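In keeping with the milestone schedule agreed at the kick-off meeting, the structural modelling team has produced records for the first pair of proteins. Each record is given below as a sequence line and a structure-token line. The laboratory manager (R.T.) confirmed that both were archived under the project's standard naming scheme.
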Amino acid sequence: MNESIFAAIDRSLDVDRMVAACQEVVRTPSLSFEEGNVAAIYLRHLRELGLDTAEIDQNGNVIGVLRGEGNGPSLMVNGHIDHVPAGEMKDPFSGDLVDAGRWDEEGVAIYGRGTCDMKCNVMASAHAIAAIRKAGVKLRGDVVLVADVGEEVDSPLGVPSVIARGIRTDFGLNTESSRGRIHIGHRGKIDVEIIIHGRTSHASEPGNGVNAVFQAAPFLDELQRYAKTLKDDDVLGPATVTLISMKSTPDNGTAVVPDRCIIRVDRRYVRGESAESCERELRGILDNLATGNPGFRYELQVIVHYPMMWVEPGNPVVKAALRARQSVTGRQDTVASWRFGVNGTFMCAAGIPTVGLGPGNEKWAHTPDEHILVADLVEACGIWSRMIVDICETA
């Protein structure tokens, strides 16, 4: 790797300007499907940073392009610009610079909802791309920045819609927080709704009905036993299954034995499994219960499928990310994975090998203590710029 080129790119990164831009977007609330105001800020910054094109598409995604000469590999850099509700977080949109010692960390951090998850990551990546242009480095391949909407609610209007309209690249980079480590995937997920049926009666005469909650009780026992049998993946971690909600109906305070028990189950799967195999296993548990209880009736529907993300460790995009990280930190590293899902999975599914690498510790995402270290943002910019040059090649 050409260290003189990277030194010039590092000098071209305006850290104060980047930090101020990160604070600006954190101070602009952007719940899912309410990203319009913050999208306009990103668009303005992309244009001010000198990207060749910048637009907001019909779904609200911000797309910027740094054009290469058209004779080299291209890279899509992705992150989302929505955030989860603030809850009881104190001053969630302050964007203040604070001493990170309150979290037993060193340095200065930007505080607020959407800092590490992940509006600061997106803005910093834009500045990393712009630093390449400012340093006078011409690339062979294009760099496409996609700042997308609706990620927190698994919306197809984000990066899946961008890819569907024909914007594609040879490789991908997802900038979700990863503590600066190289992530090559995450577990897949199905969110399943199960309705177990009973029969109503007056609560004073429960024997005249079939209580759906009692009908469901054996399934809960079996679900816990099933959870102990699931496999563990040496990169992606353990496959899991957990009950995430349960309610009965009718539930209006009247004296009625409930005739439906509605259960939501979250099933995370790993390599060697699939959404279909997980669904079959859950149906198998229910079918076995029905065999021993002729009155047992159920319905099962997969509400959400979030695909597993996986890119082979030997893929060029993974090797480029590892080289870039070692160049900046001086440390060799192994690959890792996220515990949660990211939009990189849709890039991989579309045939765009995608690696994850982002500043910030993902454990702070969705918490009242959400923040991101300024030093982590600066380090990530150095890694990203090296990776981009490595992948897209210098002209």
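The second protein of the pair:
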Amino acid sequence: MSAGLPPDTGEADPPPVVPRQEGPSGATGLARFFGSSSLRLAARLALIFVGATLLAGLVSVPLLTGALKERLRADARQMAESLAATWQVAGLVDLHAQIATNIATTRDFANLYLFIDNSGRIVFGNFNLREPFVGPRELVSGRDMVLPGRAPDGLGFSAYGLHIPAGYVIAARQTTALDEVRAIVIRSVASGLALAILLAVGVAGLLAWRAERRIARLSDVLTRAAGGELSERVRDTGSDDIGRIAGAVNATLDQLELTVESLRQVSSDVAHDLRTPVTRLRTSLEPLMLREDLPEDAAAEIVSAVAQADRIVRIFNAVLRIAQIEGGGARPRFARLDLGMLASDLHEMLEPVAEELGHRLIAEVEPVTVLGDRDLLAQAVSNLVENAFRHCPAPARIRLAVRRNGAEAVLTVADDGPGIPAPEREAVFRRFYRLERSRNSEGSGLGLSLVAAILRLHGGRVDLADAQPGLRVTLRLPVSAG
């Protein structure tokens, strides 16, 4: 089966109804969300934010611990200078007394004090060294120094030594607190980083979700517009890039709707204005067909003229019918009906026509209830079957089938004729479009346009596919509940 249609007039008719794409919900919505550019952009920003937080932590830990270490070194130097000042003012006895006092007020070896004379024999303090030193130095108990009693090895100290005329004074501060502070800072940075990751992921997901919802609304409007619903608009009040695109899409749809409506109105006005004079012309020619005194060739020309007038009137009627359906002027009588019974009735009516043309029309139907206008649906199915009659060489096998597929009623008209090439299957739904091989065959080029308009009115869609050989036309309508 093929669509025999006259040359394209250039009118921009909407394509057949296509399924609507809803926003991000369910498995499909999640797949779209996780594959969206919005999420990828938000993820990159979150990664940058987390990386910056991690970098700040990596920088802050050594800076803070370095500052604390310098503070401990300064304290050790101040302690050593205080001991040196005591010796200088009061002598060695008071120096020993000062060291004893400091040791008595120190717990857990937090502070260390030591005096060693120049000979190295007189040692007084709460730790001992292998050899004295001058200036700052990092000491570890058990390796560089010896602590009295059961003091554990491995304790770290920041020490400072001074050389005085009587010998060496050395003071040290334990760095265990520094290690604890470092651990606290690292835990704080880790906790902050974890919180930053959660916050970044949450904010990024929220921003991506909002952007994806806006993009989904924009895509949904464009999909509906592609399906012929040019009155749809994007409801987006944002002032960002998506908002500006939404405004541009709305402006484009406004202009497109105006242009398409103007084209439809022109075609409807032309068809309406010309139908009456053509009908009058046919009425004027009809009495001439009954005259017996006309030459045979003149009578044949008159019969041909009347047939052509009938064909023109049928074309005009089809154009007006499509315009009524698409423009909302039609008043369909929707009711619950059995699509399988409708197909059976049409099969019974068209089967004699198929036999007369040398074709075989087969019906395979099952009961499926839909909500629709019986006359319009019957016209759509009849157009498909008659197209098969017209464009399939005899003998052809034409199959009319109705079945239910989930929430859809599926009506199929398949034949074993020449079919329609895949690149032209979208174009045949345009008004007056004809395949090249159909130029010399009868047809108005409006049959499939009318079928598509009727399906749109019923919230369904029409698909064309290869029947191998031939063409399979599938009408899909929502099943009526209840």
